[in-house]
Amino acid sequence: MGRPTERCMMDSHAKSIWAGPLAGVRVLDFTRVLAGPSAALALADLGAEVIKVEPPGSGDDTRSFPPLREGESHYFLSVNRGKKSIVLDLKAAEGLAIARDLAAKSDIVIENYRPGVMDRLGLGYEALSAINPGLIYCAISGFGMTGPLKDRPSFDIVLQAMSGALSVNGEPGGLPTKLGIPLGDLVGGINGPIAILAALHERHATGRGRLIDISLMDGMIGLLGYLAQLSFFTGQDPVPQGSQHPNLVPYGVFPASDGSIVIACLTNHFWGKICTALGLDALADDPRYDRLDKRRERRAEVNALLSAVTQTRTVADLAELFAAHQVPHAPILTISEALAQPQTLARNMVVETEHRTLGTIPIVNRPFRFPGAEQPVPSAPPVLGEHSDAVLADLLGMDAQTIARLRDAGIVA
């Protein structure tokens, strides 16, 4: 043991580290691939204990997605930080019984199988709420629990296509282009936690949990936002605009001598600033361009006038000019540049953590901040079954002999 002064310093440091607002909340995570794991990840980032249940052998499908480093997948690492992994054979009666026992001691269950799969296993909401009435059960699927497509498998690009999002993405006159970020899946990681936290709040008043039905398709329809309202208003379908805005001009990517830069004239207030920054003061009050609607009608003219100047300057020069004149702008960064930029580093959005196999690795940090309360660096994504023994012993009180027998039988790993 350390000296008293050392112990006081250690205790003081320990008290300054805060797990997060969901400390003490336990999540049983039956998800795999991306939509479900991203929802569970948000809860882990907020301090919940997340126990990820994986099948024997390969575990989560994404553990085998290349590229790999020493057997560990970049894909799995991206959405499973801060979680524990337990391997359970849910096809074995004893494995199923363990899953039910864990659910009885959990606050939240998340799963992203097709509707009906968990019911057939005996792990659906009705079965688990019977043994744990306070359980919040979040089911995430492509099309939800109802409707003609409820049994259809879905993937990100399918959801982008069927929600209309893909139809407005791409260059004018070209083929639609899939969003680079898999938003069709990640929308589950946005809407799932929102609904779960609302149900958790409700449970404080009622003492009872609730079934949550999250449809990724619903989520994508919800994200259409003003594009949906534009269709309602005009009766016409919005069309691809590339990086431009359907109604705002100038708004999009403009050429520079060594690359390109984004200019965003969100309101008329910025039009004069853009003109002054580019030495085009005469355009600011030109009656052909002095209102949003006029510039929209002359989109090609406006873009050509600005591009004639921007293409003679470097990205750095333009960024300096626009910053000086308070024009909304941005250089187009690569992923590695975005991760290394000063703002990202100042916000500690890239941190290092210790992985059981890979050693010290960089990971993206949690995107939540609570000023005045410091959370620890997230624990590394677990190797397959890393916490099986600990979860069974600590949570279910199993002794080493019982755990060894279960392992020998292939029920846990």
Q: TL;DR?
A:
GO terms for molecular function: CoA-transferase activity. The protein is α/β, with parallel strands linked by helices. It has 19 helices and 13 strands.
Structure description:
The chain is an alpha/beta fold and 413 residues long. It folds into 2 domains: 21-223 and 381-408, 3-Layer(aba) Sandwich (Rossmann fold); 251-333, formyl-coa transferase, domain 3 (2-Layer Sandwich). Helix content is 41%, strand content 15%. It contains 19 helices and 13 strands. The strands form 4 sheets. The chain has a 6-stranded parallel sheet, sandwiched between helices. The model is unreliable at 1-14 (pLDDT under 50).
CATH fold title of the largest domain: Rossmann fold
Low-confidence regions: 1-14
Please tell me what the overall shape is: elongated
CATH class of the largest domain: Alpha Beta
| Beta-strand content bin | 15-25%
Strand order of the largest sheet: 5-2-1-6-7-8
Number of domains: 2
Bin the helical content: 40-55%
Question: What's the topology here?
Answer:
Blueprint: H1 4-16, E1 26-30, H2 35-45, E2 49-54, E3 68-69, E4 72-73, H3 74-78, E5 83-87, H4 93-104, E6 108-111, H5 117-121, H6 125-131, E7 136-141, H7 156-162, H8 183-206, E8 210-215, H9 216-222, H10 226-234, E9 251-256, E10 259-264, H11 271-277, H12 281-284, H13 292-297, H14 299-310, H15 315-324, E11 329-331, H16 335-340, H17 342-346, E12 350-355, E13 359-364, H18 388-396, H19 400-408
Parallel strand pairs: 1-2, 1-6, 2-5, 6-7, 7-8
Antiparallel strand pairs: 3-4, 9-10, 10-11, 12-13
Helix pairs in contact: 2-8, 8-9
